[in-house]
């Protein structure tokens, strides 16, 4: 490497290190400013960690009598999983239809494409907690409210994911079939769905994992599923049951994630 190339490389690394240093400084300034604004003391916060760990050891181990409630916990947890799966799969059907309308490769009309993207954007940018709170006012605290909150949030996310999937995987094939005079439904059935389906299924599996995690919080807000059970024992200050429920949720999520990852590896 000549001297000029060596200097250019040296200048590049200097600029890169300078940008990283500036980014770290900006993050530290924001962190310090946020602590002043919120009146949060980081040192005092770190000092409470050992005390919190001791409290957890003293209160959050469950006994054999608490373990007798495990079948009830698993039953409610299974109901929560089923609700999450149903909400995700039904949302994916509607998301697929809107993605067909919104994708540049399969759009029927530009106006319909804009409308489909706008609807999906609105649903996607409303947090799932906000959906739950709004729906509780209309439908009350029940499983239907939890289902609708998961459905709307999943729908918004999957429309965006499906549109990107269709645009990336089907563009060349769609153009080839269009040039041969194929109809819209032939293009969708012969090109779009076969090529996009593995990635779409991967997104659906991802959302099932996400919704099972989110369903605990949604259950607390909507009074249903494992979240409701957790909230009930939390208000009773029954920390042994809280530990049992939390461990059940964590183990279930890990198992489902492992199964989902294995399925995605087989499909992609």
Write the layout of secondary structure elements.
Layout: H1 3-38, H2 42-59, H3 64-67, H4 70-102, H5 110-125, H6 128-139, H7 143-169, H8 171-179, H9 184-222, H10 225-235, H11 239-267
What does this structure look like?
The radius of gyration is 25 Å and the shape is globular. The chain has helices at residues 3-38, 42-59, 64-67, 70-102, 110-125, 128-139, 143-169, 171-179, 184-222, 225-235, 239-267. By secondary structure, the chain is mainly alpha-helical. The chain folds into 2 domains: 3-59; 72-267, MetI-like (MetI-like fold, Orthogonal Bundle), CATH 1.10.3720. Helix 4 (70-102) runs antiparallel to helix 9 (184-222), helix 6 crosses helix 9 and helix 10 packs antiparallel against helix 11 (239-267). The mean pLDDT is 82. The longest helix is centred in the C-terminal third of the chain and has 39 residues, at 184-222. It has 11 helices and no strands.
Helix content: over 70%
Q: What sequence of helices (H) and strands (E) makes up the elements?
A: HHHHHHHHHHH
Largest sheet: none
The name CATH uses for the topology of the largest domain is MetI-like fold
Find the CATH superfamily of the largest domain: MetI-like
CATH 2nd-level architecture of the largest domain: Orthogonal Bundle
Question: What distance separates the N and C termini?
Answer: 42 Å
Shape summary? globular
Unreliable segments of 5+ consecutive residues: none
Structural class of the helix and strand makeup? mainly alpha
> What percent strand?
under 5%
Give the CATH level 1 class of the largest domain: Mainly Alpha
């Amino acid at each position: 490497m000549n001297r000029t190339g060596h200097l250019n490389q040296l200048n590049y690394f200097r600029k890169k290190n300078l940008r990283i240093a500036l980014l770290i400084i900006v993050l530290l300034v924001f962190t310090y400013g946020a602590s002043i604004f919120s009146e949060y003391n980081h040192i005092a916060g770190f000092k409470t960690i050992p005390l919190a760990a001791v409290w957890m050891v003293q209160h959050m181990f469950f006994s054999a009598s608490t373990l007798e409630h495990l079948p009830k916990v698993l039953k409610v947890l299974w109901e929560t999983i089923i609700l999450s799966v149903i909400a995700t799969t039904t949302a994916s059907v509607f998301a697929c239809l809107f993605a067909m309308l919104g994708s540049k490769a399969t759009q029927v009309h530009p106006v319909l494409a804009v409308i489909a993207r706008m609807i999906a954007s609105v649903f996607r940018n409303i947090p799932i907690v906000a959906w739950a709170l709004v729906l509780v006012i209309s439908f009350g605290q029940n499983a239907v409210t939890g289902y609708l909150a998961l459905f709307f949030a999943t729908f918004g996310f999957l429309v965006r994911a499906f549109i990107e999937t269709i645009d990336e995987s089907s563009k060349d094939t769609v153009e080839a079939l269009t040039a041969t005079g194929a109809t819209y439904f032939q293009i969708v059935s012969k090109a779009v769905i076969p090529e996009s389906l593995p990635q779409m299924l991967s997104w659906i599996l991802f959302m099932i994992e996400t919704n099972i995690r989110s369903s605990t919080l949604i259950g607390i807000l909507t009074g249903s599923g494992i979240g409701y059970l957790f909230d009930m024992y939390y208000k009773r200050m029954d920390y042994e049951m809280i530990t049992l429920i939390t461990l059940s949720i964590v183990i279930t999520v890990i198992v489902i994630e492992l199964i989902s990852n294995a399925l995605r590896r087989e499909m992609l």
